[in-house]
Amino acid sequence: MTDAAPLEADKIKLGLLDLTPRQVVLVRKVPVVIVSVLIAFTVVWVLFLADRSWTTATSAGSAIEEPGEFIVTFLNGLTLAGLLFVVASGFTLIFGLMRTVNMAHGAFFLLAAYIAIEIQQNMVGKTRNINPSDVSPLDWFVPAFIGATVVAVLGVIMQQLFLRWNQGQDLRQAIITVAVAVILADQMLVQFGALAQTMVWPKEVVHFFEIFGERYATSRLFMLAISLVVGAALWLWLNRTRMGMVIRAGVDDQDMVRSLGINVAVVFAVAFFVGSFLAGLGGAMGASFAGANVGTDGQWLLNSLVVVIIGGLGSVKGAVAGSLLYGMSIAFAPAYLPANYTFYSIIFTFVIMALVLAVRPYGLYGKEE
Amino acid sequence: MAGRQRQIVTVVAIAFLIVLPAFGSDFFIDFVMTRTLMLGIAAASIIFLSAYGGMVSLAQWLIFGVAGFAIGNVVADSGRGLKLGWAPWVGVPIALVVCTLLALVLGLLSSRSTGIYFLMLTLTYAVIGFYFFGQVTTFSGFGGMTGIDAPAFFDDEPKRLYYAALVLSVLVYVGFRALTRTPFGVAFQGVRDDPVRMASLGYNVELHRALAFTMAGFVAGVAGVLNIWWNGQIDPSSISVAPTLDLLIIAVIGGIVHLEGAWVGAFIFLGANIYLRDIPGLGSIGGFVQDRILAEDRFNTVVGILLLIIMLGSPDGVTGLILRLRDAIRGALSRGDDEVVAVPAGDASGSSPPTHTPDHN
Lengths: 369, 361
Known about the structure:
The complex is a heterodimer. Chain A is mainly alpha-helical. Chain A has helices at residues 21-49, 67-98, 105-124, 137-163, 170-192, 218-240, 242-252, 254-259, 264-289, 296-311, 316-336, 345-359, and strands at 12-14, 17-19, 208-211, 214-217. In chain A, helix 3 (105-124) packs antiparallel against helix 4. The radius of gyration of chain A is 23 Å and the shape is globular. By secondary structure, chain B is an all-alpha fold. Chain B has a single domain (2-14, 32-278, 314-347), classed as Orthogonal Bundle (ABC transporter involved in vitamin B12 uptake, BtuC), CATH 1.10.3470. The radius of gyration of chain B is 21 Å and the shape is globular. The two termini of chain B are 35 Å apart. Chains A and B meet through helix 5, helix 10 and helix 12 of A and helix 5, helix 7, helix 9, helix 10 and helix 13 of B.
């Protein structure tokens, strides 16, 4: 197995193969070509080929014939991408600055969801069958904000107690957060039970509107709007404030920031607060959108991971790109796959990840370490 | 000297395990020791990759489960899945081939990453595997498969399965230890320590990682076969995030830089699961601790706290703790002697955490 034999001068080792330089150039282009062909095929498929009645029997017709179905699918993908972005941007912010992979991110999501649901029930005065007409905007925003804040404080406590003094030992930190996630998940099971619970959107956004002959829920657009506000705030914070500047500098070169006399410990705590807050806010949104249940934490940890692996760890831009790609694939795969194969849509996530990693091993916007 | 000592301890441990069924109860052998051995094999595949390659894999439990699903599809003759109804022994080579090929594909796909990135990548494989078997009803569906028979040889004789697991454990342990001394194994450790230097020496870094991952996948598949014979059923929730993390926890509790730690960790994990509440005094604490930590179903909290304590105090797990204790005792006994305490092969990182990723990767 020792392939230390001297290489021929005109051969270059690439992966498993020995190649001439010209072949290397060609081989390097293979993934790009494959990806381009697949993208082109997907576009043609969605635009023209998909057909309800034809042999493909997809659940949505082609975009040309049924623009309504296409728009709805697109909006589904876009709104889901918004929620994905809120959650994953918190994850990527923490990682980008501290190299800490917070495996408790999903648990924070679920905890905030449960807290927000509990508070909303108290505010409305009913424990079940809450009607949207009972819920004012305040009854949604206050619980969401409190849930997210509790989780953010919890995140800072975890960081100060368990992660502050072993900074840089990334694997140890990841396993510590795994332990926190396991404890939290188990305690949440005792406290909130194993029944699915949902948070209720405020009555102002719970209705439908017509678009190309299809009905669409306003609440999903409301979710998208919150995500956009969060994204804009995050962008302003990172690009237009002193703290944001320090954080961006810390992502690039932590030692330099430290030697400029900036208190990095405070910056870390703030980043952990914001990152966990975003997980919590996402939790409240997710609880209103799809409900909260045992296992939701693992699901959202996965979602965050997939988004940042596609987009690149530590990059907010990458979180946007990753959320869009992942959200669209979740929305489009079931609608445009042939009906007998829709249960294979999960594999699409995997295919996208594999393709991105084949072309860019550190994600679309990730930096090589 | 230390290597010699390690051999003696290993041989004594194996001898003890061989005679154990003579005086252990059937329940203890079947529910604690057999499972310890098979979970130990699976955890050993994590520790092998982590200690010698710097790759902490969360995909081992997926491969472990895939072996079960493969046998289920081939062997079961009713219920969900393919229902081929072939003889139980036929399932074994099929399952092992499937697992090895899967590991090869996943290994090639992730061979360019190590450390924390590898951890996350393999976690996504694990979760996608869970959804795959849940959604793709051709192979299982969320209900899972039951009535998967073990070969008739193991019927009504839990000791036979125990000995099978013991033999395989010894083979895996000896095999991994031997592998690390082969040129491939030494090069693999070189790849862990400095991939750039190894690449410029002409070694194929990605290939070494992918092949090591494939071998670990084969071993995880072996453990998966034992598991399905012991269990007789499998469903997607048994390969979801929680059990995936449990296997990592077993490896970490045992000590993720020592191969022996796999079995130590599995024993502690299962022992705590079954016997924790029988410890005298623990049952009468009462109050919040009783309700939230020591109650019947709160095992995960205990495991989480255990993991947290281990990671905060002794990142190389219980085995690391034992080794340091031994060194401390020996140091106290032989103070002034010029005896050099040799470091075991897998102990290169000492008490530092198992991170082998250099800055430039």
